[in-house]
Amino acid sequence: MQVHYLEFVTPDVDAVCETLSQLHGVTFDPGDPMLGNARTAELASGGKIGVRAPMHESESPIVRPYMLVDDIDAAVASAEKAGGEVALAPMELPGHGKCAIFFQGGIQHGLWQV
C-alpha cells in the first residue's frame, strides 16, 4: 500500500503550505489547475502532497490520502462490494492519471491510478 497523493483542503492554504514547508523541508509550487489549484510538492516516495482551498461552500476542511492502485475501476468495484459508498467515480485528471473517492466507516478514502 502506497500513498500517491496526500490532499489537504483548507481555507488557509498559504499558512498550511508554510507550516508543511518548515516541518518537512518541501517546496510548494504556485498551484495546479488540474488538481483544483492545489499547491503541490513532491514526496520522497515519488507521490505528491497538495494543499487547496475548498471548491464549494459545503466542502469541509479535510486531509485525504489517495492510495495508489493498478486498476482504479476494479478497486472501486471492490470498495463497493465491501460496503463503501462511491462519492467520486473514477475521473481522469489530464497529466496526472485517474482518481476516485469512496466513503466507508465515516472516512473519505481516495484512490489513484497513474
Structural description of this entry:
This protein folds into two domains: 6-61, Roll (2,3-Dihydroxybiphenyl 1,2-Dioxygenase, domain 1); 69-114, 2,3-Dihydroxybiphenyl 1,2-Dioxygenase, domain 1. Helices cover 19% and strands 41% of the residues. The chain is built from two helices and seven strands. The model has no long low-confidence stretch (mean pLDDT 97).
Provide the spatial order of strands within the biggest beta sheet. Answer: 2-3-1-4-7-6-5
Give the total of beta strands: 7
Mean pLDDT over the residues: 97
Shape: globular
Task: Compute the separation of the termini in Å.
Answer: 14 Å
List the secondary-structure elements in sequence, H or E.
Answer: EHEEEHEEE
- CATH-wise, what's the superfamily of the largest domain? 2,3-Dihydroxybiphenyl 1,2-Dioxygenase, domain 1
- Coarse structural class: alpha/beta
Q: Indicate the multimeric state.
A: single chain
Unreliable stretches covering 5 or more consecutive residues: none
Helix content: 10-25%
Largest sheet: 7 strands, mixed
Helical run tally? 2
CATH level-3 fold name of the largest domain: 2,3-Dihydroxybiphenyl 1,2-Dioxygenase, domain 1
Instruction: Report the portion of residues in β strands.
Output: 35-45%
Rg value: 14 Å
What is the number of independent domains? 2
CATH class (first level) name of the largest domain: Alpha Beta
* CATH architecture tag of the largest domain: Roll
